[in-house]
Design goal:
Blueprint: H1 3-13, H2 17-27, H3 35-49, H4 55-67, H5 74-82
Helix pairs in contact: 2-3, 3-4, 3-5
Amino acid sequence: MDNQFFKNVEKKTGVNMKDILELAGSLQNANFKDEKTVRNVIKRVSQIANKPVTKEMEDKIVSSIVADGKQLDFNTLSKMINKK
């Protein structure tokens, strides 16, 4: 991915590129079948984006990723960040 991609994400979300890269690095070997891991990722994304996630929304995201087998990628993260 090029630097422009991250600049666009940074501009759209208000999230620092450094934080995005650190989060991406932490996701590389994460076990997304583990509910605790997924909840920690959700909390971290919420914190970085400064957008609170309700318990109900957290449960839906966890279910989507863990139970339904959805993958966690930049697109999913972006959607999580931009949810209100």
